[in-house]
Model the fold of this input.
Amino acid sequence: MTQDITITFPHRHLLGIEGLMPNEITDLLDLADRHVSVGRQVDKKKSILRGRTQINLFFEASTRTQSSFELAGKRLGADVMNMSVSSSSVKKGETLIDTAITLNSMNPDLLVVRHASAGATALLAQKVGCSVINAGDGAHEHPTQALLDALTIRRHKGKIARLTVAICGDILHSRVARSNILLLNALDARVRVIGPKTLMPKGIERMGIEVYSNMNEGLKDVDVVMMLRLQRERMTGSFVPSTREFFKYYGLDSEKLALAKDDALVMHPGPMNRGVEIASEIADGPQSVIREQVEMGVAIRMAVLEALSRHLPDREGLV
Amino acid sequence: MNHKNIAILDVHLVDPSQNINGIKTILIEDGLVKAIEGHVAPSLLEDAYEIIDGKGKTLLPGLVDFQTRTGEPGNEYEETLASAGKAAVAGGITSMVVQPDTKPVLDDIALIDFISRNASATAPNHVYVMGALTKGLKGTEMSELRLMNEAGAVAFTNCKIPISNSQVMRRALSYASDFNGLIIHHPEDKSLTMGGVMNEGEMATRLGLPGIPKMAEIIMLERDMRLAELTDGNYHAASISCRQSVDIIRKAKAKGLKVSCGASINNLALNENDIGAYRTFFKLSPPLRQEEDRLAIIEGVQDGTIDVIHSDHCPRDVDLKRHPFADASDGAVGLETMLAAMLRLYHDNQLDLNIITKALSLNPAKILGIKAGSLMKGMPADMILLDLEKPWILDARELTSLSKNTAFESARFIGQVLKTYVDGIEVFHRSL
Done:
């Protein structure tokens, strides 16, 4: 059923939102829309990836992204293998490239990679023969997160263009923020980033966005509020003094949310720190679409896997 | 080795030490410069000299590289004194100053002596050595500066590891001033660069890489200027990379401080955009900065604020470069490309040959007090014959260095060394 939809996706890998054309993004969203309904059926299994091998290679611990990719692959019929490589064993001497060469010899068709270093997935993609999906590389990109966020927004608002989206919190360390900025800009949304100056990367204003350090000003009349996770270890690096101070000025509570449009969506890529960047009542409140984001995550990853699989050699070995 | 007497006829000779920039004939006897004349008929010289026709070619004093790292001792697979020397003469460098950040660190007279002996036995060029400023380069205890100075160390540096402790820096400057020793420092406030891997700014933000702010260099350089003033010590900033740093040095010199300054050829020839999509061969220390900084560095060389341009030769096994950007080693080889990269600025009419020769040869020799950088009568005949107009493309595989981590792979250059002489002996000849 999903096979008959024509999509434009000329890329062999999905390494980032950067480099994607707006129509390629919307095609992926359209395809994912179809997969949402598949996920809600009793029989969720497809055979698009039957016989294919998907390896989830995670150099950084992840529960939800990894399980989301695993489920997406399995629902499309692929054989999915999870490999968690702790960074300590990497330090024992095996380089990323050694790992890539080893895995490549197992002839996977799709490789989903998360790594703590920016650019690591792109490096790996140069060394393997299969399609590579970036599941997060350092503070660089996390393209499937931005896609699932866009899908969630579009399903609620019917569009992306001309919506005002505020991305709030630790922008400096966030790959989610970067991918979202690129995607939302590509689809003509207005993007604001809000956070303390210590968590704002230099030159970010040149990415086509508005920068706020006052959350009350930044949230005014926005259509979407995207909260980011604040890593606890940021307290020791003198980025912010304490979680309670951060929450007072940058945590999303009902008072601050009231400044946004009445029907503003509240989003969070998870895992949440309740009481640090978001109040529980908001996370579980009527404007929150956080649980739906998880569902969209599986659908988007199915769409990405399917789109990339079209570039794999067919059963006769033809590309 | 036998010295032949050589006469290079009708060559374009540039020697800023004698204000020469014109067509000359140079006579070499017993490895020393005998005379520089106008046109001399070859028939008058044929009996006593080997005649080399210099028509259409350019002769410069041999280059003096202020900052050459080798892997000897410790990492000989990356570069030895011999292999660095061979690479150097292919790039026109007749004197190189090796850095003490080896394994073990050169912080002891025995090691200084080891380098000097090994180099003179194996390297085709003159090799000088800098001693470690602090024991083990740890930045806490001063090394035996004066003993090393007597053993032949030409200056003292803590290499790429800055001295964050101001008291240590103050004492070193003060102590070394007693015997006119030169303290070389890599100005960088590590607490500001912590974790940074490239210039801080839009480019780093887009790549998601932690940035190295310019302020880290500026603050440390400002501190050093104050300490140089306080102690009246001889201070040399190893490699500056920012526009503001050029201003700081300019002001310090105007004040009359005993301060000099260098920059890496990489910061003169490249900028942060060259990093593109995580190209680790451009991961350097100091990092590549913005175009405005590169232009300010050129201007600093032009007006004499920046005294020295060095290769910042840093041989690294390419495997150490084939990592995600943040995890890759810093540094690039530079001995064989320094002059060619510098000549780009000559061909772009940004720097003339006089200035280039000063920055690559005369000034470093003067600052270090070594007998080089000039072709005055009686000086060693360290010189290079160039074809200034020869176009060529760099193929990393053809580099002489044992390590091939060049930031100029496939770069197009104009101008190449044809012959290199050390003490009047031809040590390099490019087969065409």
